[in-house]
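Researcher: Going back to the complex we discussed earlier. I've cleaned up the inputs and rechecked each line, so this should be the final set. Can you rerun the prediction on the complete assembly and write out the structure?
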Amino acid sequence: MKYLDKDILFVFNALKKNDISKEKFKKEALDNIKDTNIFKLINDKINYPDTDNILSCIPYTLKDNISTKDIITTAGLNTLKNYVPVYNATCYEKLSSKGAIMIGKPIRDELETSVKKDLVSYAIGTDTFGEIRNTSVVGYKPSYGLISRYGVFAYASSFDHVGIYAKNVLDATLVVDEIKGYDKKDMTSINDMDDIKLKDYLNNNVNGKKIFYIKELINDQHYMKEIIDKIKTLGIEIYEESIDINLLNAIKPVHDMISLAELSSNTSNLTGIIFGDANKNGNINDMMKKHRSESLTSTMKRKLIMGSYILQKENINNYFINAKKVRRLIVNTFNNLFNNYDALILPILSNKDNNSNNHLLIGNLGGYPSITVNINKMPISVNITGKYKEDGKALNIASYIEKLFNKEDKK
Amino acid sequence: MKYQVVIGLEMHCELKSNSKVFSPASNIYSKKANININEVCLAFPGILPSLNYKSVYDAIKMAIILNCKIPKYMIFDRKNYFYPDLPKGYQITQNTHPVGTKGNIDIIVNGTKKNITIQDIHLEEDTAALDHLEEVSLLDYNRAGIPLLECVTDPCLSSAEEAAAFIETMIKIYQYTGISDADTKKGQIRCDVNISLKDDKDNFVTPRVEVKNVNSIANVKNAIIYEEARQIKALENNPSSLVGETRRYDESLNETVFMRFKEDDIDYKYFIEPNIPPFEITTDLINEIKKDIPVLANERKDYYLNNLLLDEENVNILIKDIDTANYFEKCIDIGINHKEAANWINGIILSYLNKESLSINEFFLKPEYLKQILDAMTENIISSKQAKEIFYKALENKKEPKEFISKENTQISDDKELNDIISKILNNSEEQIKEYHNGKTNLFDYFVGQVMKETRGKANPNLTKDILTNKLNKLK
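Model: Rerun complete. Updated structure for the full complex:
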């Protein structure tokens, strides 16, 4: 019997009842990976403790931009190709102390694949552009600050989130329950949700819950109408809201402006002086220049030049400050809607290469909890985005929608 | 043409705290490099700042003392530039909403008060210390992230003396409040000095020259004096050579040296630090901090001079640090005469502390103990000479002075006893008495000396003199 295609609770119970020994289970997980060659296995022998926690012994993958002490972490950057962190990210520290087993540090696509192909039970990733929720598995980005960002290599500080790829909403919720919480090392972490267990919300009655969709975003997507009709059978009320198309069109450029600006500053530590392998000869300023010129890719350089341009004295008002004002406008619009509705439902197209899922950036602009669930046998998913800090409500609705479509599949 | 030099100061002061301003790494002065560091000081990927509230508290306290306008929220900005001493590639500072703006403070220059206006005061992090040697440059990240307050004055100082007085006043405030040791020897005070000239019609005639990173009061003065002379000379000989520039002060040459033109100044691309949520400065907090501000040096100086009528030299010693001033005031509180207290502190006490390298807080003789000695002296139980002996005896044995103010040590103030002793001495001093009466009056001291010798210093000096005068007159 295979275990890694089962959900976390199933494996947990099997281990508890000794249907499979922890050693055997671990071996199964590691052997699985060896054959695939899909990402580099962490060879270093790390002894994670054996605990009673639900995540104990359960393998997962961790994105390569999350700091792991003594384990090389590159974020896909040349300048960090030999970088071995000296400290642990808070989320990794929490998982490790609970006995969860990190078996690989892939980059983004491999991260999703590792879950999809049942190589691991779940994966910890980051969400700056909606990448966690632009997925064919379950992708959950909690409220901004629910999971500490300490140790997450910063791209755009005000958009960066830690998030989860999982096989189902329950698994994603269980994992977040274990790694969420106020962290004094991250001043933007939420300090009043420590006592909440998100899994307690999953079975709440959804009858009478009100969600809305944005007319402008599903105009020509007839399948969404079908999905919405089915969701209504749960007793959930669904309403149409119209939002100024100019505001919706501004989401991407606003996100671009702010994220490029923040990126240009956040990556200024990549000089090769303290870490990285700058040739430590000659003039110290030339040293940094040379290292950056040689190690950063042309795409990265283009982004940094744009970010720098946006922040320049003569441009900052036009670009950066205005982008922040429009961000506020967008967030206020959605905050107001969330005062009247329990959640927003968004379509997700599986075509990842175009900008068709730009609306996922709403979740990053407002720091909203946002979960994507797949509609089985269809090349589409739906995303449920909720009010800031009301993760439980959004997960509750997403969980019911997930079950609704899974049930049909089994018939 | 007579020119007036105009000076604006940017004074940086490292604050005292257990940990650094944006990380839990230790903020303790260390001569050993790179030991007070963690991943945040070194800007390893993924780090985030965590704000030290003690530093925020102290920054607000300084803003209050400098009569500044205080914003509703504490907000930080990033100042972006590349330099090897700046691990993150940006410094977290306050640009848009400094903790204090539009303040002012009185300084005293040559006995005259002058009000200095403050543009702003803001909290930021220090950079690493960079030491350029011939072959290599050394970096010490102990300094990276130490809380730093930068106070920016208006261009309203008009001499090197005023600049020095301003810095001294500020140092005293930092030390009195305990916000900083403000020790220039430890590099805790550093100034950027902006210098230009005005003509007699109050128009600027030279562009602003900024002398960066001057690290002592003496050097600030020297830099101003040098720069003033340099600018006047250039103005008279080659005015077109005067451009806005950044210079540094070279101590060994006693000159300012060109670094870069102002027009080449870096665009710091400031933006609000996204990792630190705004921290609300409530009225309650401000009131709480106000209660925590001690009476400062200038106010005490006023009081000592004008109410206690002490002379300035004495006052300056008493207010040198808050602990000495507090000791002095405690003495007065418990009933010691203020002039006597001042004399004792500025005399025997400070010289003892100096010799022993002790601070007045470590001084065994608390004001209460000192009072035991002074009371005994006032009541003529002991002489001033004995008082000093008891002072050292008490310190040596770490015992209350009253233990040594016993019978065997008391002065001989008994009329009959002294009369007998003096008669005995005079009976054996026929020669001297003759000479005395022949006009060698300074022999009087010789007789007193003999009495003291006989009584091992315990004879009441006034009584001794009275009896001696009496007896010598009779013998004429």
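Model: Worth noting: The radius of gyration of chain A is 22 Å.
Researcher: Good, that matches what I expected from the previous run.
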